[in-house]
Amino acid sequence: MRSPTYRPVAGSDKICTPEHGMEPAGVRCAFHVAGPGGLSVHGYVAREHIVHLETNRISPNFVLGCAHSTENFQSEGEYVGIATFSQAPTSLAMQLAARGLTRGTVIDLGTSVTVMAQLKEHEAERVEQRRYGLGVRVTKVVKGHLPSMSFHFADEEEATLIVSPEQLFLMIDDEHVGQMTCLAIVPGRRTVIGALQQLDTHFVFDLKDSKILFAPELCIKDTYPDV
């Protein structure tokens, strides 16, 4: 049964641009996604209402994709909905943030370093270095005392993501002050766990019970040696 609130996006719509991963296809707006192992997804873009299960609040006109053709994908041969979770303005996460719905955390391999929503009461002094904050000169003492960071998630008592100093700080060579180390977390409207902070961590998504778990894992063990 087709949703009564489903509305196709026209090819002339201002969001239908290559920068957003879309392109005009006649009167419709189309999207194409390619991935490793010959994975590909093609379809059309639409707007639809979203219902928040906790509050039953309805948010209209969310942009999403409706796949019409999939290859090497678990839903091959079926119609599926496609949503992105990057920092693009058309991603589901950013659409929620734009409407003031900023609770929750996104885990995204497409984001290089972690983005953290700034709290208004946070007034820590920042030493700006390129696009990072909280930078200090590197000494032996500093290297030996760089802290780790733990992310705790509401309603997830067993889920604690521990980020080691190696994944939390970046070493940067500055022509004026020499080597510096900077906190690899940048401010943003919504918290996103980036790729750097996901290194050497095993993620378990329990869809049945709506839970997420983390465990340390040496990712190098999953690689193949050069022959």
From TrEMBL:
A Pfam family recorded for this sequence: TAXi_N
Domain Xylanase inhibitor N-terminal: start-end pairs: 2-103
Protein name: Peptidase A1 domain-containing protein
Organism per entry: Digitaria exilis
Cellular component annotations (GO), alphabetically ordered: extracellular region
Record has Isomerase as a keyword: no
Example GO molecular function: peptidase activity
Ranges for domain Xylanase inhibitor C-terminal: 140-215
GO BP field: proteolysis
Assigned keywords, A-Z: Hydrolase, Protease
